Amino acid sequence: MAIVAIVGRPNVGKSSIFNRILGKRAAIVDDQPGVTRDRLYGETEWAGKKFYIVDTGGIMSETEHPFMDLIEKQVDLALDESSAIIFVVDGRTGVTPTDEEIAHKLRRSGKPVVVVMNKLDNEKQEDAMLGEAYGLGFDEVVASSAEHNTGFGEMLDFITSKLESEEFDSDDGEIRVTLVGRPNVGKSSLLNAFAGEERSMVSDIAGTTRDVVDSVVEMNGHRFRFLDTAGLRRKSRVNTDLEYYSNVRTYQAIDRCHVALVLLDAQDPVTEQDKRLIGQVLERGKGLILVVNKWDLAPREEKVGDVMTKKLIEELPFAAHAPRVFISALSGRSLGKLPELILKVEENRRRRIATSELNKLVKEVLVFERMPGDGKGHSLKIYYCTQADGAPPAFIFFVNDSELCSKSFKRHLENLLREMADFSGVPIKIFMRNKI
Ligand code: GDP
Ligand code: GDP
């Protein structure tokens, strides 16, 4: 999914526009505490295209950077990281010298830009001011009022027309893997351990404006594509200002991958950030392997492996099915286990249970169980079950009344399915459908 950035001077209405665009369809993918604004990026869809939208206004605090510096940096970052730009100017104050400078930078980049003149709450204002906005030198100018919710259709039509559709699900036999985890957990080291030793090649992927560089490595007779390693290798540029973009990029990589290796630090294994990341991997239907790195630094105590395993299961009950490995990217310890595990998890993600087996479950197991009900004599009846096409595995239970199914019963069904076949490292989706 592409990134669209909203840039402009403070107070022109960027965050109001951001909120309008996200509206009710919004999925805020991440909230980070300790920042002036807690909502800075989200996922949305327009005209069938999904994209991330970033409100650059809150990325840097003004106290840290002198004013002009701040805006310049913000605009540079937006240009680096995004595929299209919404440039907001204030329709009340009109175009200012700062706006001109921003425009100059944006024009030179060649990126698609829509100029949005905001706070044009009535038509009279529009006519008078819009000429100034055209004077900034871009073809696409839109009058908007975040207050009255006008101008957004035109703005988003233009933006989405400039985003290329991304089609990643071609089945070319490659396994797409992403390494994710907190900064400094060892992602680059692990990548280098894989890509460095083997004959590696670097390739560009079409379909994204930003240069995405993957490493393709041949192991165990399969091709593994490690995604977006540019973001990992471009270390020098990573600083706190970039963190929002790098978070979005992590989600982009998760979207593109088949299997995600979530790296945890042996010395401090499960932080809130880790939990959120692991939740996102599963929610997005991807394979999950928990990789505890820096195992060479793990406390030297008895049964340290068992202790860690217990901790991971306790802290991450929703990922208890995921394979766990303890490695050292530095010494190379246990790295050899990873290719096979990745292959296994991807196999699980594509696994199918025969319909006859599923209906054995319905007829021979569930028939003896106490079904959830409404307490008034109605209880759930399951007639049959099928597995939908595609990965990750999704099962559809045809029932008398889907409302009667409780969350805990769904979890129970999930456990039964996991007993029937190896789904380790893979989320399972369960749907109830009324049989008519
Ligand atoms: P940002 O600093 O660029 O993110 O700007 P904000 O979204 O925080 O908006 C700054 C101020 O302008 C707030 O008081 C908003 O309520 C106001 N504002 C935003 N959009 C409009 C608009 O379309 N019309 C009017 N009249 N006020 C607006
Ligand atoms: P990234 O930010 O996740 O890409 O992390 P890096 O790969 O840059 O690693 C951060 C630091 O941790 C570097 O100094 C690495 O040398 C160190 N490191 C990575 N893996 C290990 C490991 O397995 N053991 C130890 N002791 N240090 C490691």
Automatic annotation (TrEMBL):
Domain of life: Bacteria
Residues that bind GTP 2: 181-188, 228-232, 293-296
Keywords, ordered alphabetically: GTP-binding, Nucleotide-binding, Repeat, Ribosome biogenesis
Oligomeric and partner information: Associates with the 50S ribosomal subunit.
Function: GTPase that plays an essential role in the late steps of ribosome biogenesis.
HAMAP family: GTPase_Der
Family label: Belongs to the TRAFAC class TrmE-Era-EngA-EngB-Septin-like GTPase superfamily. EngA (Der) GTPase family.
Protein name (Swiss-Prot/TrEMBL): GTPase Der
Primary gene name: der
